[in-house]
Amino acid sequence: MSQEVLSPVLETIVATATAAAPAFAATTPELRAQALVAIANALEANKPGLVSIAMRETGLTEARLTGEVTRTAVQLRMFADTIVEGGYVDARIDLADADFALGARPDIRRTHLPLGPVINFSASNFPFAFSVMGGDSAAILAAGCPLIVKAHSGHPELSDATAAVAAEAIQSVGLPAGIFQLIHGREAGVAVLRDPRIKAGSFTGSIRIGRLLADIAASRPTPIPFFGELGSVNPAFITAAAVAERADEIARGFLTSVSGSAGQLCTKPGFVFVPAGTKLAAAVSAAATELPEHRLLDPRISASFAERRDAILAATGVTPVIAGGVRFDELGHGWVTPTVVTVSLANLRAGREALLEEAFGPLSIIVETPAGTDLASLMPEFYEGNLTGTLHLSAEESTGTTANVAELQALVAAISQQVGRVLFDGWSTGVAVTPAQQHGGPWPATTNDASTSVGTAAIQRFQRPVAYQNAPQAFLPEALRDANPLGVPQAISPAGVSKQWGQRWG
């Protein structure tokens, strides 16, 4: 594959990012932390104007968008503390050992270094939290990598406004020029992704586009890491005892999760498995008294949702619990109310081609399972991978002392094999921005199930490990020096212990 010639504008952007990479990688964690906090402060200071633009471009509510700005700022601040604390560099030091079990061991020290320029493709459904200054962008900058953001076509004005706010904040702390730039257009994004100076890519969006971009990244003469968050239906399992104990509470939480932001969330519960004969469907129907109409993000998503909804409603054995609806306005925007249906497990199996694909919007399927169903077997039967899996238990079942505990443990184990986050007695929408969060999962939830796009582990996606052998102190990264000037956690393997390895185990 020959190298494509970039347009003059894109060439300047990529060249500027490439030139900035060494200086940015050499900046102190404190300076990068100051930049992240400056961006967070600037976003919150400009919140009213940014939210106003976002409401107009996306149709999302003021309350949702205001909260999303706060979430974005919190994640930036969390990363600021993370990079100063330094555990993310995973500093490991094996001291030289003349009496090593396999012969003399050299001094070996390992840490992580920034990859270089990275392109991030913004999401449509989170115009702040997964867009210009969202989680991927924050992680890229925290890692010390120059960032090029491909703006989403669904909110171009907001992208420009957010970029202007962020650029001014970055400049205010004196970071190198060129570490943050914005581009528009799918062709421009693909051209930059193909450029050999770009060292990684990230993306949040559809399976089709994500796979296209991942294949481009993998097929380059020098393949690069690509971290895509793609599709997920987030199955939930509810026991009969849980329904008997709190059907109304579960139904209200379920509807809130399905209808929030018009169901345009990667964590929306798309399927709920419940024993046949329970009162969950009736409780959901009773709870659906006031579900306001909500605009979908754009006409393309509206048309796709309407098509998926029609296909699901037409499938054999599907019964509406809440019929919902789709109304198109003069601009092609879809205005929706939630749709919830039931189907038997047998009809789900028979109609899997029509039913299993994700419906991106406020629609969910309640699957009624017959007595004696091996619930653990349903995960590999229906799902390759998801961001989340949920289990609702009764209070007694939660103690782990009921007769069905082995069955429930097997179900949890099966869910764990195919998701990145397992929830109990809650709903998958709402991803807590905390250090331990895992927001990823096996394909097609993500392109790399060992990574996360939320939580402090997200930073390491944009770094690579390097080991130094017998290096003089002056030539080591500061994180690996004996004096440890950065004060980072260091895992030290001292001399003289290797011959005792494993002795306590037999």
TrEMBL record:
<dbReference type="InterPro" id="IPR016162">
    <property type="entry name" value="Ald_DH_N"/>
</dbReference>
<dbReference type="Pfam" id="PF00171">
    <property type="entry name" value="Aldedh"/>
</dbReference>
<feature type="domain" description="Aldehyde dehydrogenase">
    <location>
        <begin position="11"/>
        <end position="368"/>
    </location>
</feature>
<dbReference type="InterPro" id="IPR044151">
    <property type="entry name" value="ALDH_KGSADH"/>
</dbReference>
<protein>
    <submittedName>
        <fullName>NADP-dependent aldehyde dehydrogenase</fullName>
        <ecNumber>1.2.1.4</ecNumber>
    </submittedName>
</protein>
<dbReference type="InterPro" id="IPR050740">
    <property type="entry name" value="Aldehyde_DH_Superfamily"/>
</dbReference>
<keyword id="KW-0560">Oxidoreductase</keyword>
<dbReference type="InterPro" id="IPR016161">
    <property type="entry name" value="Ald_DH/histidinol_DH"/>
</dbReference>
<dbReference type="GO" id="GO:0033721">
    <property type="term" value="F:aldehyde dehydrogenase (NADP+) activity"/>
</dbReference>
<dbReference type="InterPro" id="IPR015590">
    <property type="entry name" value="Aldehyde_DH_dom"/>
</dbReference>
